[in-house]
Amino acid sequence: MIMIVVALLSVLLPLVHLALSKVPRTRARIIRLLLLYALVLDVGVIGFVFGFIPHIFFADATAKSIGWPPGNPFQFEVGFHDGAWGILGFLSLWIGGSFWIATGLGWSFFLLGATYGHVVQTLREGDFAPYNFFTIFSDGFIAFWLLLLIFLYWRWGIWKEDRAANG
After folding, report:
1. What gap in Å lies between CA 167 and CA 162, rounded to an integer?
2. What is the pLDDT of residues 107-145, one digit of tens each?
3. Which of 23, 42, 102, 104 could cross-link to 150 by cystine, CB 3.0-4.6 Å?
């Protein structure tokens, strides 16, 4: 499933970036790059490209891939919800500091709820539709990965450095 690939790329690409970069690999730089890639890919790309676009423009096909009946009225709401978070993920390219913390926390909170919902649907309803079952892994991983990175970003005071640098 594509979202698992995006989640893996959000870990691998910053590691390649760090390996190829001539800039010193400080603890702050490593966390900053890992978190930035996670916000742009796991929030921006997944929220906008794989949330907003399919739920809004391909609602019936998307519903079927999740195991929902076509014509579900929540598709529109879920699409705009995902799109709003996706925009925040992309804005992380230009806005750092506490904005990153808020964006990552909000998306993680949503994904933890989504993971729970997908687990319940799988166990209670036997819904093994690809975009119900496989998102258990991508959503769950992304939520915990973002929470770990945000914790380190906050705990080590990197967000304060970024806030001070950006005025």
Report:
1. 9
2. 999 999 999 999 999 999 999 988 889 999 999 999 999
3. 104
CA dist., res. 20 & res. 7, Å (int) = 21
Give how many domains the chain has, as a whole number: 1
Query: HEC profile for 5-51?
Result: HHHHHHHHHHHHHHHHCCCCCCHHHHHHHHHHHHHHHHHHHHHHHHH
Phi then psi for residue 157, to 5 deg, are 75, 15
145 and 38 Cβ atoms separated by less than 8 Å: yes
Q: Taking the model in full, what pTM does it have?
A: 0.93
- Residue 60, helix vs strand vs coil: helix
Centre a 10 Å sphere on the Cβ of residue 128 and count the other Cβ atoms it contains. 11
Q: How many CB atoms lie within 10 A of CB 10?
A: 26
Looking at residue 58, the DSSP 8-state letter turns out to be S
Residues 6 or more apart whose CB falls under 8 angstroms from that of 93 comprise 36, 40
pLDDT tens per residue across span 65-85 = 888 889 888 889 999 999 999
Cβ atoms of residues 86 and 47 within 8 Å: yes
